[in-house]
From TrEMBL:
GO terms for biological process: mRNA processing; pseudouridine synthesis. This is Pseudouridylate synthase PUS7L. Signal peptide: none annotated. Belongs to the pseudouridine synthase TruD family. Residues 386-607 form the TRUD domain.
């Protein structure tokens, strides 16, 4: 069931006006399954992978091949695939019509022309290639001829799509420079360098430096130099294997990255990571992931751990399973994961005990028939119109007494002591966790509180350990926050900004309605072949009258130091809202904690993809709230048929959402209640 505080964190504004229905979710852990969708569009529990380094087939749990060629990796992907020399031949040495065949080559050329005219996420299949050396030649030929394309192998098929890194760079430099740079990256010739054209704009050079460092920092280093009055950026491949004080064996271990798919059940992401780190003898910060997943669910997500070999990770599989974790698809990879490097998530949800809103004295058959109509109407409405893209309750933490956004507000005010005390505020319960929190609040004794805190509470123990060493004053509390991984520290200020965003959207819908209005923000629509980075556009009075934009185009800013605010009544609303919390002139930086919040422009509406549903009678025993044993899906496969069976109805929903969109919020729009 939802917590009492949910209503305050997620306003009750809807887009569609259907009636909805009542029901409950997460009765059982199996009722809420979340599967990450990687950047290639595959679910991580079904995607197959090839190791990045020359290793035996036993290092690959799947045996099939699926790998995007990523230019920012330190190892050449083609070399990893077939062991060929990585030096890119001269342009004349590739003939795509010979390597691909004339018809496929022409189809690829047409695909490229389409991309130039209108960017798209669509893919093109180049066909199947059973010989790995042939596949390597295809990868290299396509990448050299069209540096702005990514190639992927799903053995034995090869597909191509636009490379988002190329598109981003091509907005900063000329297209010719972007293509030449990517050819330079692909070649990986030791000691080589590449120089961009003259650029006397220091601010622009800084943006280019930051992009290259963010996307290729492990592979290259950059510097600006001045020659004969003009300044340019030079890029050099980093030297590999330079002498260090560590032994060769230590260096080799330090460079090991192992990727895997984690299935966890009823565990927080950090809790799972903390246990695995302790078992493997590494730090929690040695684990990287694309996103944090729900606790009360079965979740599948990609992870990468540093300094742990594939064999060592396999040896721990049985131990992890005893803690509700299953590790599969273990493989060698070349670099860590980055937050946000995912396409979205797939959800398989079960809503139990369906019933109409309001009391009903209808017969079971009549109720079932009515519910079938209500569900169909609700699903079709959300398919067509989407839902308000609120941040879900998970964004604000699971503790009733203190929401995470209040902790975040204290951090933005750089009041470290208040933030710590809010973090440790206990609930009105007497379990070990709350007893330890209560002891800390009452005594300010980090050492004794650490002894009381259960081993499973990774965040609390990290902070208490740091404060035991550095004290509980401002400096000690700062060290306590710094003991958490960056992704955990930034969670709290993000929670505050998310609450403001939710409130802003509710106010926007209430006061300005469900149309795009003058002063609203949208992405600028560009039909030109000469594409640029998406630009924020302010809706004009004429565009409002002509209904050029819809509510689905409207963006709402999450507060930060780089965002643009609406140029209508909502702009003043943001200023007043931040001022009310004492954040006038806030820089949205917390230097002591190395936190920077640029903010973002988030679409007001979101839409589920591939939405399907199934309405069933609950299996025997499930209607009474007891989980069935055996093949419960087989027991509940009977479709609603209008007969007078007495069983409660159960709704199964399957859909995809973009990253940072919440399934519980989609359900609210469907059901018209907090599920």
């Amino acid at each position: 069931m939802k917590q009492d505080s949910d209503a305050t964190t997620v306003p009750a504004c809807f887009i569609s006006n259907h009636e909805g229905f009542l029901g409950s979710i997460k009765n059982f852990i199996k009722d809420f399954v979340v599967t990450e969708i990687d950047t290639s569009g595959q679910r991580v529990n079904t995607a197959t992978h090839t190791p990045d380094s020359a290793s035996s087939d036993e290092n690959n749990e799947t045996g099939a091949e699926c790998k995007w060629n990523n230019h920012s990796s330190q190892d050449n992907d083609v070399a990893a695939d077939c062991g060929l020399d990585v030096t890119i031949p001269s342009p004349g040495s590739f003939d795509l019509s010979v390597i691909l065949g004339q018809s496929v080559s022409e189809e690829l050329e047409q695909f490229v022309l389409t991309l130039k005219e209108k960017p798209t996420k669509q893919e093109l299949s180049l066909g199947s290639f059973t010989d790995k050396h042939h596949r390597a030649n295809v990868h290299r030929a396509v990448r050299h001829r069209f540096p702005f394309l990514m190639t992927v192998t799903i053995q034995p098929e090869i597909r191509v799509r636009e490379d988002p890194d190329y598109r981003e760079l091509s907005q900063l430099v000329t297209e010719d420079e972007a293509e030449d740079f990517f050819r330079f990256i692909d070649a990986k010739v030791r000691g080589s360098s590449y120089t961009f054209g003259p650029d006397d704009d220091k601010d622009h050079r800084t943006v280019v430096h930051h992009f290259l460092s963010r996307r290729f920092g492990k592979l290259v280093e950059t510097k600006s130099f001045t020659d004969q009055g003009t300044t340019a950026i030079s890029v050099r491949l980093r030297e590999q294997g330079r002498p260090k004080k560590r032994s060769a064996e230590e260096r080799k271990e330090e460079e090991v990255y192992t990727g895997f798919t984690l299935r966890k059940e009823n565990l927080e992401t950090l809790e799972a990571i903390s246990y695995m780190a302790a078992s493997l003898g590494v730090l929690p910060s040695d684990f990287t992931y694309a996103g944090i997943k729900d606790k009360r669910a079965i979740t599948f997500q990609s992870m990468v751990v540093k300094k742990v070999s594939t064999q060592r990770l396999k040896e721990k599989m049985a131990e992890f399973e005893r803690r509700g974790m299953c590790v599969t698809q273990i493989r060698s990879v070349s670099e860590p994961l980055r937050l946000g490097r995912l396409q979205g998530n797939h959800f398989d949800l079960v809503v139990r005990d369906l019933r109409p809103h309001g009391d009903t004295h209808s017969s079971a058959a009549d109720t079932h028939t009515r519910l079938a109509a209500l569900v169909k109407e609700a699903v079709e409405n959300v398919k067509a119109r989407g839902f308000v893209n609120y941040y879900g309750p998970q964004r604000f933490g699971s503790v009733k007494s203190v929401q995470s956004d209040r902790v975040g507000l204290a951090l933005l005010k750089e009041d470290m002591v208040s933030a710590v005390r809010l973090f440790f505020t206990p609930e009105d319960l007497s379990d070990p966790v709350n007893n330890a929190k209560r002891h800390f609040i009452q005594t300010d004794n980090a050492k004794e509180s650490l002894a009381l805190m259960p081993l499973s509470k990774a965040r609390e123990r990290l902070m208490l350990r740091a404060m035991n060493r550095y004290g509980t004053g401002p400096d000690g509390c700062t060290q306590g926050w710094l003991s958490l991984p960056h992704s955990m520290r930034v969670f709290y200020p993000h929670a505050y900004c998310s609450r403001v965003w939710n409130e802003a959207v509710a106010h926007r819908l209430t006061t300005l309605g469900h149309r795009a209005r003058r002063g609203d923000l949208v992405w600028l629509q560009e039909d030109s072949a000469e594409s640029s980075l998406p630009q924020i556009h302010v809706v004009t009075d004429q565009e409002e009258q002509e209904e050029v934009y819809t509510l689905g185009h409207v963006l709402m800013p999450m507060p930060g130091n780089t965002v643009k605010y609406p140029e209508n009544a909502m702009g003043a609303w943001y200023q007043e809202r931040l001022s009310r919390d004492g954040l006038d002139g806030c820089r949205f930086r917390v230097s002591n904690l190395k936190l920077n919040l640029p903010g973002c422009h988030r679409p007001l509406l979101a839409s589920p993809r591939n939405l399907s549903y199934q309405l069933q009678r609950a299996a025997c025993g499930e209607a009474g709230g007891e989980e069935t044993t055996g093949n419960s899906s087989r027991n509940s496969d009977r479709q609603l048929n209008g007969t007078t069976a007495e069983g409660k109805l159960t709704l199964t929903l399957n859909f995809d959402l973009d990253s940072s969109c919440y399934a519980t919020i989609c359900l609210r729009e469907i059901m018209k209640c907090d599920p």
